[in-house]
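Fill in residues.
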């Protein structure tokens, strides 16, 4: 992998090991920047929500990320050029990909970073984004169904905000919302059916012991065309009064309950951490099974969040999973891994083995 002009990184050649890569260094050294660069090569966005201009090294106007991806049935060559004045340029195996979905099918990654704690403690939109990102990596048409749903929803809401909006033009969007919404909701339901038992298992076996966790799909409306169409019809006058569309898959949630109460407001901080790590472990497991390949796992500052025995069990699970892992830490001696491990030091954006 190579990076030029990305944050503070100076990465002419970075050759990671095929299993555990421990990235250590002081605060502000550039560890998370390296993980962000690797993750950008998969997700095509910053996990810290940074805009392109924030990613480009201060005082310059372009960044280039390049990587070679091995281990799958075919190797892939990835190249991304970011510029502050021009559109982003993506090149996959020497060609411009037809859509970002082609890219997401080629490069699969699972990420944990401290900001992910909002998956357990934050609002439903965070959990929907988690589900959507997984589905994008597993299902080649999911991304376009979600995009049509969201586009129609924005248009409908824009009309609802206008005072003069007439019934017929608002309701013209209902058909596409019902159709695309049913596809989106059903994909989420199937995903959660598959994911939930794995989350529960990871949570109880690896992280928490005896506290029962319940994981469920919680749709705002049943995800069928008829049910969504009926809900839109029913809520029409309320929608006009409120100025937005209330019902549909944009209100879906992934319910997480501990001891039969919502984990969001009742879970401890440590429980939130373990729930999120269980979600990520389950994601890795499911993506591996559905795609026949273990995704790259990126863990930003994960072990500072776990006690010693949970740390050890977590790494045991990851060793069994067998994929390529990148993890950052300020204390490499706290990473309880002995085998298949390569350590890299980061200092002022330079990475040395
Ligand atoms: N666009 C940019 N251009 C140049 N430097 C940048 C840019 N964005 C961030 N930096 C620098 O990157 C450094 C932060 O790097 P990073 O977040 O990777 O640290 P870290 O090693 O993960 O530290 P910590 O252990 O505190 O998490 C800061 O010194 C910051 O000034
Ligand atoms: Mg960091």
């Amino acid at each position: 992998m190579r990076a030029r002009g990305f944050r503070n990184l100076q990465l002419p050649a970075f050759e990671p090991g095929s299993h555990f890569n421990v990235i250590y260094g002081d605060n502000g050294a550039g560890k998370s920047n390296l993980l962000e660069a690797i993750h950008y090569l998969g997700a095509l966005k910053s996990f810290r929500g940074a805009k392109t201009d924030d990613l480009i090294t201060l005082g310059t106007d372009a960044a280039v990320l390049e990587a070679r991806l091995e281990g799958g049935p075919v190797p892939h060559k990835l190249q991304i050029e970011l510029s502050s004045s021009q559109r982003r340029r993506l090149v996959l195996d020497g060609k411009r990909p037809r859509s970002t979905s082609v890219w997401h099918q080629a490069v699969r990654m699972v990420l944990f970073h401290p900001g992910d704690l909002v998956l357990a403690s934050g609002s439903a939109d965070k959990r929907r984004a988690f589900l959507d990102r997984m589905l994008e990596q597993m299902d080649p048409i999911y991304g376009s169904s979600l995009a049509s749903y969201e586009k129609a929803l924005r248009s409908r809401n824009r009309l609802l905000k206008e005072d003069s909006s007439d019934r017929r033009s608002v309701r013209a969007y209902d058909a596409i919302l019902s159709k695309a919404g049913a596809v989106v909701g059903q994909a989420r339901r199937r995903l959660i059916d598959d994911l939930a038992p794995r989350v529960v298992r990871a949570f109880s076996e690896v992280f928490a012991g005896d506290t029962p966790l319940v994981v469920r799909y919680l749709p705002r409306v049943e995800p069928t065309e008829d049910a969504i169409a009926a809900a839109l019809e029913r809520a029409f006058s309320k929608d006009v009064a409120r100025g937005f569309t209330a019902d549909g898959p944009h209100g879906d949630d992934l319910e997480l309950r501990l001891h039969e109460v919502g984990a969001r407001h009742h879970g401890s901080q440590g429980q939130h951490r373990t729930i999120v790590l269980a979600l990520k472990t389950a994601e890795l497991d499911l993506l591996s099974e559905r795609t026949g390949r273990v995704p790259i796992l990126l863990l930003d500052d994960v072990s500072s969040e776990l006690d010693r025995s949970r740390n050890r069990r977590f790494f045991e699970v990851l060793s069994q999973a067998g994929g390529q892992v990148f993890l950052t830490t300020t204390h490499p001696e706290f990473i309880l891994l002995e085998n298949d491990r390569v350590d890299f030091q980061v200092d002022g954006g330079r990475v040395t083995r």
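The first helix runs from residue 31 to 43.
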